[in-house]
Amino acid sequence: MSGMRLSGLPEQLAREGHRRLLVLSGDEVWTQQQALALRDAHPGDWLWVGDNAPVADACSPQALHQLLGREFLHAIFDARRGFDVSAFAAAGGTLRAGSLLVLLVPDFARWADQPDRDSLRWSDSPQPIVTPHFIHHFCRHIARDPQVLLCQQGQPFTLLSTPAAPDWHPASGEPQSEQAAILDNLTQMPEGVAAVTAPRGRGKSALAGMLLQRIPGNALVTAPARAATEVIARFAGERYHFMAPDALLASTQVADWLIVDEAAAIPGPLLAQLVARFPRVLLTTTVQGYEGTGRGFLLKFCARFAGLRYFTLCAPVRWAAGCPLERIIAEVLLFDDEPDDTTPQGPVQFTPLEQEAWSQAPAYPAAVYKLLCAAHYRTSPLDLRRMMDAPGQHFVAARAGETVCGALWLVEEGGLSPALSQAVWAGYRRPRGNLVAQSLAAHGGSPQAAALTARRVTRVAVHPARQREGIGQALVASASQLAQTDYLSVSFGYTDELWRFWQRCGFVLVRIGGHREASSGCYTAMAMLPLSEAGRALCQREHQRLCRDASIIEYWNGEKIPVAAGGESTLNDDDWLELAGFAFAHRPFSAAVASLTRLLLATSLPLAGLRGKIESGLDDAALSRVLKLSGRKALLAHLRSETGAALAQHDDERARQLQSTILQWQFFQ
Ligand SMILES: CC(=O)SCCNC(=O)CCNC(=O)[C@H](O)C(C)(C)COP(=O)(O)OP(=O)(O)OC[C@H]1O[C@@H](n2cnc3c(N)ncnc32)[C@H](O)[C@@H]1OP(=O)(O)O
Ligand SMILES: Nc1ncnc2c1ncn2[C@@H]1O[C@H](COP(=O)(O)OP(=O)(O)OP(=O)(O)O)[C@@H](O)[C@H]1O
Question: Given ligand 1 and candidates 368, 460, 495, 501, which is best to mutate, with the most ligand atoms within 8 Å of its CB?
């Protein structure tokens, strides 16, 4: 290829056990030509990551997780139209020593002005947005790392020689020293739960396979994806017996050991049930920024096991320590989930933080991001990109001296036009974003709810050494002083402790979701802190609705709601509106269930569908059989029409008026 010579580099990398990032920046034709030329010039099982790949061995960024656990020599990552940074990191983790990760990006001079298609995954904007803070952050890191090879269209490329690293001695097949120490411990474990966490390529899966070889008795392996357990299978040989998590739970299989690979990617409640079934369990999980992984897994899930044996593997095995590719990915994506042992000392100051800080003083927002990552189960690089460039994000930081010891992240919500808000209430529209604001309209009793303006607290965290000093509460107080909106809101997996915190911050509970979250096993709770008259009125109305419906929701959820239950048990105006929304528009059953329950008490009509579902508790399949209906849609339509009939029987004129009003709400232009 013209101008670019890599002679000897892959061989040098293989000798040193390293991998390198090579960035090709230019127009689409040029970058593609260069990438294909590199691919031809250097033998390997090259993987192309990107949509519309010009070669056969390819996968889209979103499908890459299916390849975790597999390994490649060299990869090309196409970030020209959109940069899925989680997939980029994942691709980096699959590369063997001696690999190049070739990254295709637009011309640096134009990149920051070009909309990034990946933003559709993490920004609520209907169109791709420009992402200047991330692009500048990325380019800044690339430019100052001498180990990154940067090849720009129209500019000469010189391969700077780097000081030779010592020769690498790949692992032999025998346990590495860290693996050996853990194996010693595990093979003597009488019973209990052990967890091994490590970044990519540290030999977790190999360790699990080696354990299978060494234990007496039998063992089962489970994991979110079987394909990702290839390494375990290789090291376990004939002792490898795999079962998918749900199949295992449904079976009566017993074994002396259960090995759960990538445990953090299995929903918490399912994992908890699996763990309870076996006398000895090994959980392994990757830390470093993938969704559903990280130290948060230990904090949230593993905290429940008294006597948990916890191990980590630090030394890389797939490549040598100090690998330049691993280092640049970690730097760019702030993969630093090492616990910070230093306690931030001294008095605390609270300051607002906006996205511009990423260009003015990047270390400051980076510290905020790291704190949030360490505290929150599901913080991933997607959040980093959202934090940097999505519209409507605001932050408050708590600093003790120069150290960030607490942070709060807010997202703007609401402000929909009154007509759109009504359409959301009626179930005709569900625009992107606006989690709590839309939920208040779609499940609550106020058609105008989503027209109010709000800021939702999406994350809040305080350094573990400074908790219970009032810092969390003060962060919320600062946020409420800064926000010129009708209310602040929060949506969180309900636990008594967290609710106590929000309550102490002045929040009022307005909604409890109808399903447990897969990740936490908790019901979603939504709460409001009103800041304006309109906010107070909405908050009061929704809280009263929750109090009135509490006993019925408790019946469906099987869990106590912490509000003073009470209110009219006969049909009132709110019920009429709700029931009309269910009967004549698209309100969901879950929003209407309490009003429907009161309707059944107030009518003598048979209403076999509604009574079957609500009074007899039949599930949808059984109820459909009884009613001779096929499918959920037909059942829902039947329930809606029964409701319409009951309203008409009560007061035909009123039902017709409401129907005609609500039907108008679908034309919301
Ligand atoms: C949308 C979301 O982000 S939900 C997730 C919230 N974040 C997390 O769970 C991350 C880990 N946890 C944390 O970082 C912190 O514990 C926070 C942010 C929840 C609370 O921050 P703190 O600074 O410790 O809270 P703060 O000291 O202001 O507490 C105020 C009141 O809340 C209540 N409270 C706070 N934490 C707890 C707790 N663990 N258990 C019971 N009550 C609590 C108490 O009533 C406390 O007052 P008190 O100490 O006088 O009794
Ligand atoms: N003791 C060992 N001897 C030889 N090869 C090893 C040893 N330990 C691990 N390996 C190899 O190193 C590579 C990385 O190991 P492994 O897949 O177990 O890591 P991991 O921590 O599970 O990483 P990932 O999450 O990236 O798959 C694999 O190719 C594996 O075969």
Answer: 501
Here the tokens at position 475 are 């962060």
Instruction: Find the Cα–Cα–Cα–Cα dihedral 172, 176, 177, 178, rounded to 10°.
Output: 170
Tell me what pLDDT residue 41 has: 92
For ligand 1, atom 42, the nearest C-alpha belongs to 497
Atom 9 in ligand 2: residue holding the nearest Cα: 203
304 is in an annotated binding site: no
Helix (H, G, I), strand (E, B) or coil at 376: coil
The answer on whether 462 is annotated among ligand-binding residues is: yes
Over residues 147-189, the pLDDT tens digits come to: 999 999 999 887 777 777 899 999 999 999 999 999 999 999 9
Q: Check if the beta carbon of residue 635 is closer than 8 Å to that of residue 627.
A: yes
* Candidate CATH numbers 3.40.630.30, 3.30.70.260, 3.40.50.300, 3.40.30.10; the one for domain 348-556: 3.40.630.30
Q: How many CA atoms lie within 13 A of 445 on its CB side?
A: 26
Choose one of 212, 226, 231, 259 to mutate for the ligand 2 pocket test, by most ligand atoms within 8 angstroms of C-beta. 231
Fold of 573-664: Four Helix Bundle (Hemerythrin (Met), subunit A) (1.20.120)
pLDDT score of 340 = 61
H-helix segments, 379-466: 381-389, 418-426, 435-443
Q: Is the distance from the beta carbon of residue 176 to the nearest atom of ligand 2 less than 6 Å?
A: yes
Q: ipTM exceeding 0.85?
A: yes
* From the candidate CATH numbers 3.40.50.150, 3.40.190.10, 3.40.50.2000, 3.40.50.300, the one assigned to the domain spanning 177-312: 3.40.50.300
| pLDDT score for 482 | 94
Closest ligand to the CA of 17: 2
Confidence check: pLDDT of 556 > 50: yes
CA of 587 to the centre of ligand 1 (A): 35
35-54 pLDDT, tens digit per residue, is 999 999 999 999 999 999 99
Dihedral angle computed from the Cα positions of residues 5, 86, 270 and 192, in that order, rounded to the nearest 10 degrees: 60
Q: In CATH, which of 3.50.30.10, 3.30.70.20, 3.40.50.11040, 3.10.50.40 is domain 9-152? A: 3.40.50.11040
Which ligand has an atom closest to residue 285 CA?
2
- Please name the residue whose Cα sits nearest to atom 27 of ligand 2: 69
Q: Which two tokens stand for residue 577?
A: 């509106």
